[in-house]
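Project standup — Tuesday

K.O.: blocked on the structure for the chain from last sprint. Re-posting the sequence here as requested.
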Amino acid sequence: MKKSLIILALITIISSCSKDDDDGSTTLQFESSVLEATGDLSEQSSEEAKKTIYGKWNFPSSSSARSACKLVSLEFTGQNYFMTLDAGYKGAISGKFTLGENASGKVEKVELKSIFDDNSEIVVAVLTNMVVTKTGDDLNATFNLVLTFPNDSGESSTFSFSSCNDALSGNIEAKKAEPMAESKNASADSNHAKFIGTWKLVSATNWEGEKVDLKKVFNEACEDVEYNPDTGEYTVIIIDRDFDCIPASSAVIEISPYGTYNSLLLDAKDGVLSSTLGIWKWKDNTQKVIMTGSDDDKEEDRGEVKIISISTSEMSIENDDGTFLYKKV
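H.V.: unblocked you, prediction finished:
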């Protein structure tokens, strides 16, 4: 499949009874107090539970390393999650999470969902009996985990984690990661507090100053070029959108107070079609330039993103690829 340079720029710009119908669609407005939330999810409403699970959770080997599989980390944002596993190689899974409530309006489970090669969105993990406590300066969580990855098939790397279903399912202990220093006491009017959250791309201008047609760019991800040796001509062909490819409807970036980010391409129902995980930090105390990259990048290899303007609802940024306008969702 052909992916245009613009698509790559968009998804790496920060590089760059029982009720089950709560979709977590309300974004948390960042407050440092949410980093310290504790409680038993079975005694909390969905809004309370979102704050309790919010953040990045790391897993000690004694709790999550079983057989050939290891659960490395699980991070919840206001709307989505991203989970890293190691099954002989490290991989990340992203998608929406939903909070299932009982008849009393209390949370009884957290479901993690992902989209697979046949474009179906399925539940890949269920968390129950989750309790978050604080001991000294540490926040710890215990919960029961059931992984339900499909059997190995197709081309999706997600399928290869089916071997972890039995190996990792059971009682799990986790420790909340240390947030960035700037996150602990961020004032509401600081660039740091404004930057954290979920942002949707609404317009873009390329490096030549030309406006980018986002719909066209998204559709190009489901196009390929076929060469005819008899005529010497190239023809644009559309990849089967009923099975092989779904064009994105929107591009979103999720900024975490733990120095991580997730760039997402979403379908019309906000299902995650693809994601790019990375790390970020401020270049200096002015909080006007962001350094981005991956855990493996050397300091000199990380990219720079400049904040042109930012408020609690809108942000304009630029890098070598162009200028991008986002709105907080």
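K.O.: great, moving the ticket to review. Helices lie at 5-11, 46-53, 61-64, 164-168, 181-184, 191-195, 214-220. The two ends are 30 Å apart (CA to CA).
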